[in-house]
Amino acid sequence: MGGYLMYFLLIIIIPIWAQFRVQSTYKKFAKIPTTAGITGAEVARKILDANGLYNVQVKETPGVLSDHYNPITKSVHLSSDNFHRPSVAGAAVAAHEVGHAIQDQQGYAPLRFRHALVPVANISSNIAWIFIIIGLLSTAFSNMLLIGIVLMAAGVLFQLVTLPVEFNASSRAMDQIVSLGLISNSEERDARKVLNAAAMTYVAAAAVAVLELLRLILIFTNRE
Q: Membrane-crossing residues (predicted)?
């Protein structure tokens, strides 16, 4: 009983900790202006142009930390604060999203693999728990549990593939904002803190997904 309690505490605490870390780090450095004094939108545009991505648009999107790159429309979307305000956090986030655009341009294999997994992961994640719940209700439905585990594994694979994609985008982001002089040497460490905190949310999500998958596999194998 104690083991199960510890397990459930872990899968609850890990994501909460990761979210708290990224929000507190972002909030702190969103208040610190860069020496260059340029907005996130300007940072994104400068990096895009420096890499020949003139066709990629930079757009404002509502929300907080809603920033993303859309590979279908070939556009970088920045939340309002990051789009308009010159801050260390805004520069780091904008550069990160442009990192995805550069990955897309160069045909970065993990990004392509993740894009291919999107429809599979969406479908499997939505229906996996139907089979899992039915399978957990009775040992007579063990095959249903196995189907649920296989479906869930597709979602876990998506989470794992996301990790190298995000870490690589952050690495590209730091290379770009440093080499183009968009942040000063003293701001480099702070920008890296923002990107590392954001990356931890993906690590936490992947860790929780793997733990849950392993738990279900153990339940299934113990029935055999």
A: 6-22, 116-138, 144-165, 199-220
